[in-house]
Specification:
Acyl_CoA_acyltransferase, GNAT_dom, eight-stranded mixed β-sheet, alpha+beta, 2 domains, 399 residues, elongated, six-stranded antiparallel barrel, Pnp Oxidase, Chain A, Aminopeptidase, N-acetyltransferase domain-containing protein
Length: 399
C-alpha cells in the first residue's frame, strides 16, 4: 500500500479508463468512464444526461469513489491457495463537482484528447458549442488516494517447493494493434499512432525524377488495383491476382500487418510528376544486426514497364539501404521461371548466388524454386554509377 502522490499520478496517467462509483437513491452504481489528470485534480468524462452528472449539479457536489486497476501478470503457485496476480490499483474518494466554466471544460477536453495521442488536439476538430453543452465533466480533488500493488514471483509455502507442479508468473500487458482507418480516410497515419521503429523499419518517403516512394496505406487500394489489373503483372507473384479491390485490400492488409510486426517495410510507387499510383515495393528479411535487407514484393503496372520507374525505384531503395542505413548486403528473390525478373536484377549489378529449392509455394499450390541474388556494399558504388547512367537514357513514366 502506498500513499505517495507520484505513484498515484503515474498510474492515473498510464490508464485510459477508470470506474466511477456513487449512490443513487441509496443504491450503489458503478460506471466505466474516461479520465485525465491535470495537477492534483482528476477529471471524469460523461454525458449531461447521466445520473451522476445530474446529481453533481447541487452545490454540495457528488460523493464518489474512483478505482483504476492495471493487471500486470498472473501468478501460478504450486498450491491453489497461492495463485495470485501482479497488479497496480488506485482508489480515490472525495466529493466531485460539475465543471461549469467553459474555458476549464475546453482545457480539460483538450487534455483528454492529448492523452490518447500527443498532437491529436491539433489533428482533429475542436468541439462545437452544442457538443460542449452535451458533454459533462466531473472534477475530483485528489486528496484521499491510495495505491496498492503486488509485484514479484510465487510465494508458496516452504513445504510445497518440492511439489512436481509448474509455478511462475505469466506477464500480461496491453499492446496496441495496427490502426484501422475509417472508410474514406486518405490522410497518412499520424506519428503518434506509429510504432517506435528503427530506421531499418521506417518507410521514409523517397523521390526521384520518375517515381516517388511513400508509405503504403489502405487508401491506395483502389488506384493500385486499377494500375495492376493486367494478368501478366501477377504471373510470377506469390499472391494470386485479386478479382476486385476487396481482394487487393486483403493483400495490402497482409503487407501492413507484416510492417506492424517489424517484418516488412512497404512503399507505394507513385508517378513523380502526377502522383498517379504505379505499383508497390518493399524491404523484407530485415536484419539490422547483420546489416542485411531484401528488396521484393514488387508489382508495377504493365504500362510502366521499360520506363525509368523500376530502375529509379531500385536506385532509391539501394541508396536507402547502403548509403543511409549502412547495409553490407542487399538480397533479391525471384521465381526460377521468371526469366524477365532475373535479367532485370542482373542489370542492377546483383550477383546470382543460389537456387533455393522448394523455397515457397505459388498461388496454385505448386512449389517454386527461388533464384537468390545479392549485392554487397563494396559493389554498390559501381552499380550506382551504372544505374544513374541508365536513368539518363530512360523513358519517362508518363509516356
Amino acid at each position: 500500500m502506498s500513499y505517495q502522490r507520484s505513484a498515484a499520478h503515474d498510474l492515473l496517467d498510464e490508464a485510459y479508463h477508470c470506474h466511477l462509483g456513487f449512490t443513487v437513491d441509496g443504491e450503489p452504481r458503478i460506471l466505466p468512464t474516461l479520465h485525465v489528470r491535470i495537477g492534483d485534480t482528476l477529471y471524469l468524462h460523461g454525458s449531461t444526461g447521466s445520473r451522476p452528472l445530474l446529481a453533481a449539479r447541487s452545490d454540495a457536489g457528488l460523493p464518489v469513489c474512483v478505482a483504476v486497476t492495471r493487471l500486470d501478470g498472473l501468478v501460478y503457485g504450486r498450491s491453489q491457495f497461492h495463485h495470485s496476480a501482479n497488479y497496480r490499483s488506485l482508489v480515490a474518494h472525495g466529493t466531485a463537482r460539475l465543471v461549469a466554466d467553459e474555458a476549464e471544460k475546453r482545457r480539460v477536453l483538450t487534455a483528454l484528447v492529448e492523452k490518447v495521442g500527443r498532437g491529436r488536439s491539433a489533428d482533429s476538430r475542436a468541439p462545437s458549442r452544442r457538443e460542449l453543452a452535451e458533454t459533462a465533466l466531473l472534477a475530483l480533488p485528489l486528496r484521499e488516494v491510495s495505491v496498492r500493488t503486488r509485484t514479484g514471483g510465487v510465494r508458496d509455502e516452504p513445504g510445497d517447493y518440492d511439489l512436481p507442479h509448474w509455478a511462475g508468473v505469466l506477464p500480461l500487458r496491453t499492446v496496441a494493434g495496427r490502426p484501422e482507418p475509417d472508410a474514406g480516410v486518405t490522410a497518412p497515419l499520424p506519428a503518434y499512432l506509429r510504432p517506435d521503429r528503427s530506421p531499418w523499419h521506417t518507410p521514409v518517403p523517397m523521390s526521384g525524377a520518375h517515381v516517388r516512394l511513400e508509405p503504403l496505406a489502405e487508401s491506395h487500394v483502389d488506384a493500385l488495383y486499377a494500375a495492376t489489373r493486367d494478368p501478366e503483372v501477377w504471373t510470377h507473384l506469390s499472391a494470386a491476382q485479386p478479382a476486385d479491390p476487396t481482394g487487393l485490400a486483403e493483400i495490402v492488409r497482409i503487407a501492413l500487418d507484416a510492417h506492424w510486426r517489424g517484418e516488412r517495410v512497404p512503399w507505394v510507387q507513385l508517378d513523380a510528376a502526377t502522383g498517379e499510383v504505379l505499383g508497390t515495393t518493399s524491404f523484407y528479411e530485415i536484419d539490422p544486426g547483420h546489416r542485411s535487407v531484401a528488396i521484393g514484393h514488387t508489382w508495377l503496372g504493365r504500362r510502366w514497364w521499360r520506363t525509368g520507374v523500376n530502375t529509379e525505384a531500385k536506385l532509391l531503395l539501394l541508396t536507402r539501404a547502403f548509403t543511409e542505413l549502412g547495409a553490407e548486403r542487399v538480397v533479391w528473390h525471384t521465381d526460377l521461371r521468371n526469366e524477365r525478373s532475373q535479367r532485370a536484377i542482373e542489370r542492377l549489378g546483383a550477383t546470382r548466388e543460389a537456387v533455393l529449392r522448394r523455397h515457397r509455394q505459388r498461388p496454385d499450390g505448386s512449389w517454386r524454386d527461388t533464384v537468390q541474388y545479392a549485392m554487397l556494399a563494396d559493389e554498390w558504388p559501381k552499380a550506382q554509377v551504372r544505374l544513374q547512367e541508365r536513368l539518363r537514357q530512360a523513358v519517362p513514366a508518363g509516356r
